[in-house]
Amino acid sequence: MTDQPIRHHPTAISLHRKSRLLSIAFDDGAAFELPCEYLRVFSKAAEVRTLGRPVTGKETVTIEQIEPQGRYGVRILFDDGHDTGIYSWDTLYALGADYERNWAAYLHDLAEIGYRRQEPRQEEKRIKLLYFNWLAQKLRKETEELVVPPGVADVAGLLVWLGRRKPGAAPLFDRGRVRVTLNKQFAEDFSKLHDGDEVGIVPNSPTAPATPDLV
């Protein structure tokens, strides 16, 4: 593996244990969130590649440890005892770029052998919200902690949910009026939420929309 030069290099990598996701960003701007189950069933370890059938029963598998392997990648240790999977940075990049196609093929293979995959139960997420400028004035608070329903998975969904919590609040959280930070980095609509995240909501304009009293 070390004979070939690595084309892609990570700029950030983090493990979200409760949501069982490995987030990884690369130096070309690409960023992926890879489920632990996906990484486990697509392990390059010999015992997985030569199994002759799709790996099953890994719906709730998690990552226990990530060990650097020189400058080219990591070894991932899973809580089911699998610890021989070494993932180069290029492998992780390819797994992220080809996720939709790979996952569809995996589900097809499971169906072919008659295995019914069980979706893991979605967990609630506790997040800290920071409100700025006129938004803090309108809400009469600068910060609060909330438990977000399992169905609110990303920034776009969070803004919609916040706008529905009180009558007349929707204009305050209109995506055209605010920017959102996620753990002190500006976020996109599709940025995923995780338990323990800090979310800042910053108005784009100094002028607040007209809304009824929200208190």
- Class per helix and strand makeup: alpha+beta
* First-last Cα distance: 61 Å
How many strands in all? 11
Q: Provide the helix percentage.
A: 10-25%
- Strand content range: 25-35%
The count of domains is 2
CATH topology tier name of the largest domain: NE0471 N-terminal domain-like
**Which overall shape is indicated by the principal axes computed on the Cα atoms?**
elongated
Please identify the top-level CATH class of the largest domain: Alpha Beta
Succession of helices and strands: EEEHHEEEHHEHEHEEE
Helix run count? 6
Mean pLDDT across the residues is 89
Radius of gyration: 21 Å
Could you name the ranges where pLDDT drops below 50 across 5 or more consecutive residues?
none
What is the CATH architecture assignment of the largest domain? 2-Layer Sandwich
Largest sheet: 5 strands, mixed
